[in-house]
Amino acid sequence: MKDNRHFQTLCIFMVMFLFILSGQNLQLPKSHLEMNTYCMSCHTCDNPTDDNPCLEICPRHGGKFKGTHTVDEGPKIVIMDQLSDIYSSVVFQHELHAGMSEMSGGCDLCHHFSNPDELVPPCRECHKIKDNYTNIAMPSLKAAYHRQCLNCHREWSHETECSTCHLVKREQETISIVPDPTDIMGAYHPRIEAEERYVYSTNYPNFPIVTFHHTDHVDLFGEKCVDCHSGNSCLRCHENGGSDEPPHIENLHSKQTCCNCHTQACREPDQCIFCHKDHEMPKFNHTTSVGWDLGDRHEDVACQSCHGPLKTFIIPSKVCTNCHIHWDLDIFDHGTTGLILTDDHVEFECTECHLNEDFSAPPDCENCHDPEEINYPDSLPGYKNK
Amino acid sequence: MRQTNGINRNDLKFFTPGVIIITIFACLGIFSIIYRLIFGLGAATNLDGQYPWGIWIGIDVASGVALAAGGFTSSFIAHIMHRERYDVITRPALLTALLGYTFVAIGVMIDLGRYYWIWHPIMPSMWQGNSALFEVGMCVMLYVTVLYIEFMPIVIERFLGKVNFPGILSILNHTTEIILRIFNRFLSKSISLFIIAGVVLSCMHQSSLGTLMAIVPSKLHPLWHTPILSLLFLMSAFSVGIAMVIFESILASRSLKIPFETPVLSQYARYIPLLLWIYLFAKVLDMVSRDSYVYLQHVTLESSSFFLEMVLGVISPILILSSRRLRKKVPWLFTGAALTIFGVLLNRINVFVIGYSPPYATERYVPSIMEILVTVGLISCIILLYRFFVFHFPVHHAFKGKHYEG
Amino acid sequence: MTINRKDFLRTVGVLTGAASISTLNASIQHNVDLDRLGVLSDLTLCIGCRKCEFACNKSHGLPYESIDKYDDPSIMENFRRPTSTQHTVVNRYPEKGNNGLPLDVKVQCMHCEHPACASACIVGALQKDPKGPVTYDAAKCIGCRYCMVACPFQVPQYQYDNALTPILMKCDLCYDQNIKNGQLPSCVAMCPREVMVFGQRKDVLALAHERIRTHPDRYIDHVYGENEVGGTSWMYISSEPFENIDLPTLSYECPSHLTENIQHGIFKGFSGPILLFGLLGLAMKLYRKDEE
After folding, report:
1. C207 → closest Cβ in A57, A86, A136
2. Is residue C203 part of a domain?
3. Domain-located, residue C235
4. Fewer Cβ neighbours under 10 Å: the N or C end of chain A?
5. Helical H runs in B215-310?
6. Looking at residue B104, what is its pLDDT?
7. Which pLDDT band holds residue C13 (cuts at 50, 70, 90)?
8. Whole-model pTM?
9. Which residue in C has a C-alpha nearest to residue B139's C-alpha?
10. Closest to C49 (Cβ–Cβ): which among A136, A140, A162?
């Protein structure tokens, strides 16, 4: 009898406890529902209430960065395209910037918050795109980006022009070669006509031929005239006093001119064949030279956009989502690949068909379908729009 | 002392050399007004985003209202205090007020960006009781009406029994005669109501004119900005009203070659020092209580203008007009009145133009030629019209023009 | 002086009667909504990109250039004020910011809590909306420009070059076009660094104090517009004292309070004028008896 009463009391307590627990769950403020972080990152106590929220100061100011990371753990470049409106998307050289901040403050110079033993969350995980005035304390994604970038760009390089990072969106996005006043041609020099390529024969054994593609270096790689034609005297080219005679360029034929930029190839003996070949080389072609087809999408993009400045050339990942890290179901329009997905496929996560995040490989239909009946490319999960 | 036998001045010409010069100024003013209407305020004035009000408001309107105060002060003294012996100068004062206020309205219209909507404040849907300008506008509108009604007896006196339209219009003679009679009967009974209304309306808007600039404590120089600005405006309006009556009576007597009304005028003038003493007392008390006298330590345009206003415009007329001996002499009487008027005029200009310093102005406002021409032109028009009315209506007792023939 | 004592006393009595009426005090009730909106401008974040000017002109149908033209900072060498074609401008104060950087200050209508312009307006063309913005109705405006005189910040601008239909130009907080549709004011939405935070006034004010509290090294302890002229809807926090960046030092009392007190004192049920009318009528009668 006595035991029974104990049991009853215990039951009541249990129910009440559960009720309180569930009640707490229900009482979670609406604004917290979309938060992806765990409670303890903001609240210091177990049961925060309206009266006593026991809030931790903003992670921005508390230095809540946990763990150590290296530069190459992060993406090489990040294409920020979910906000592009007046301006086109920004290609952010993540590796370059991570390398720079490693020298001064480490990852938490920008990523001021991370959960222990987890990947460093990208900005967009906390800072949301917002178009109304709900949460005024936390900057929106746009503001977070601009505050972060411009803090350094403003103090160190004094670059606050939007064009430092952005291109204004135009009808047809093209790379325009803007005259640079620091270059010879930018300084009102008449256009200098040059051969498309120069073939030099050297005395390097077995591989004497060096093909120099002048046009590629100027138009594609964005080299300035003065990068190679260095020197500050007009007489260097115009020996006979500014006539229309072609300039004298013999002294450029030195190894040193190329080695100014191709430092690695000049330094290491086994890299000589980077330039020295046994035959004339064709024009640079991203598909054949690198083995990665630029396709329609990347064809018009300037080299520096993905590879960064020539001096700190980086090789980005070939996996789409490593750069386009914002691409998920909501943002990515599959129609841009030429195939519009049917309604029943549009809801699937990308990796359900594209295994191992390899988006260039044919999709795998076997997960759901009988391979005898449905396989790629005989039957498509949509229809082509091109 | 009343002049019973009027001097017939049929031989006095309307146009004298002085009047011709004034007519030229009036024409230039009208030309400038047309220019402003066609090309806009930006082309005609030196007003800008920093100085939205210039001399058109400072002189034509604010000073105009102050100087037209003669109408209500004289009617207060003559009709409410029943000093009927002052009657001789009530009519000229009334006419000046009438013309003055009419031209204040015209001046406002020229300054308004959308002058064709000047009637907007009358509409109940747009009433704005918080605005001092609304009160000024409404009072001026009503007061102009009252002034016209007060002037009616003079028109009736001129035409009653003498209505004689030319040509075909003569059939209206009888009807007009009857209408005038009805008006005459109505007015003779109710004129005192209008006289009191006129004084009330004047007190209201003369003071509200000061309230206008009380809203800008940060822009109006502390020498002038005070919470009692409206009270000071009202008090200075009393004194300038009397001074104005004396001033123009002497001027008109000279110009129309009629005897000076000296005894009446010096009787009038004894009120001026009293009123100015009260004004000066309030002003000094206010400056001491707000410590604004510290701004007099440095010689600036504001402080020198303030000195000029107080010494020349307040203290010297007190000294001159306090003396009973000097009051009896026309030149001194005239000087005293003129200095009082100068003081109030300068006070209004100081408050609206010189003392007004907007926070981001790079250079001080200086009126453009056009603005000056319009102001001078409007004053010239008032003088011409005054002369016209004196010639054709029984305004001055002593001056009986052509209208008294037959 | 030939005024006898009786006359003198009577005159003074009448005068003081009139004077006391014109300074009668009455309390004024203001129409204040607790959900009032506000904007906080954190000047330490502004980089002077002037995109707010672009967004403002574009959304108000005012002339604007292509967006890359706004990157040119040379225009900021001159001190500028809002004009009849620009509701907002950004001024640069070199080396006034933190770390020797320039301090950029965006100026526009402050949307006072008790706006002097709206109190001054003769036809009620300028109105303080209970939600916060000071709005303008050109259909009422007669162009007297008293609002420009009254504004302590010298914000409203006038189309002086328009001869026939000039109107007043001033920031309206994009009330009709954006706020009523649940959107941010154009400049706030455009600002890349969220220099301006838009929300309920009490919230943004709390945010301002929070920022000052957490970064006492970065800000001076003053929220400009919290109390100036009785409070404004637009507020600033800055690293530099506000008088150094051309924001006028103003009293905490709203300027329209005095004039409205005077006006309401006179006009409360028209008691003042009626009283004066009666007083004068009485005087008229008294003096007449006296004459007899």
Report:
1. A136
2. yes
3. yes
4. N
5. 229-256, 262-269, 271-290, 301-307
6. 94
7. very low
8. 0.75
9. C273
10. A162
Determine the Cα–Cα distance for residues B339 and B341; give it in Å rounded to an integer. Answer: 5
Quote the tokens at residue A190: 């008449």
Is some CB atom of chain C closer than 8 A to the CB atom of B109?
A: no
Helix (H, G, I), strand (E, B) or coil at A106: coil
Domain count, chain C: 2
The size of the B-C interface in CB pairs under 8 A is 219
Across the interface, of C47, C99, C198, the residue whose CB is closest to A150 is C47
Residue C208 domain-assigned (yes or no): yes
The pLDDT tens digits of the residues spanning B278-315 come to: 999 999 999 999 988 899 988 999 999 999 999 999 99
For chain B, which ranges sit under pLDDT 50?
1-7, 401-406
Residue A32: pLDDT band with limits 50, 70, 90: low
Domain that holds residue C41: 37-114+169-253
pLDDT in tens, B246-279: 898 888 888 777 788 888 888 888 889 999 999 9
Tell me whether B35 touches chain C (CB under 8 Å). no
Give yes or no: residues C223 and C187 share one domain: yes
- What CA–CA distance (Å, rounded) separates C97 from A155? 11
A61 touches chain C (CB under 8 A): yes
Q: Does C2 touch chain B (CB under 8 A)?
A: yes
The DSSP result for C227-289, as a single string, is SGGG-BSEEEE-SS-GGGGTPPP--SS-HHHHHHHHHHHHHGGGHHHHHHHHHHHHHHHHHHH
Q: Which CATH superfamily is domain A68-164 in?
A: Cytochrome C3 (3.90.10.10)
Partners for B (CB, 8 Å, 3+ pairs)? C
Reported in sequence order, the residue ranges of chain A that DSSP labels E, i.e. its strands, are: 78-80, 90-92, 197-201, 209-213, 276-277, 339-341, 382-384
Hey, what CATH class is B16-404 in?
A: mainly alpha
Question: pLDDT of A161-195, one tens digit each?
Answer: 887 888 766 544 444 444 555 666 555 566 667 77
Q: Is residue C50 part of a domain?
A: yes
Please check whether residues C247 and C259 belong to one and the same domain.
Answer: no
Each domain of chain A, given as residue ranges in start order, spans: 2-60, 68-164, 197-299, 333-384
Nearest-CA residue of chain C relative to A61? C214
Instruction: Report the percentage of chain C scoring pLDDT > 90.
Output: 52
Nearest chain B Cα distance for residue C210, angstroms: 30
* The pLDDT value given to residue C87: 95
Cα–Cα distance measured from residue A121 to residue A114, given in angstroms and rounded to the nearest whole number: 6
C174 in the same domain as C277 = no
CB atoms within 10 A of CB B55: 26
Residue B49 with chain C: CB contacts under 8 Å: 81-84, 148, 154, 157-158
Chain C residues lying within 8 Å of A160, measured CB to CB: 47-49, 73
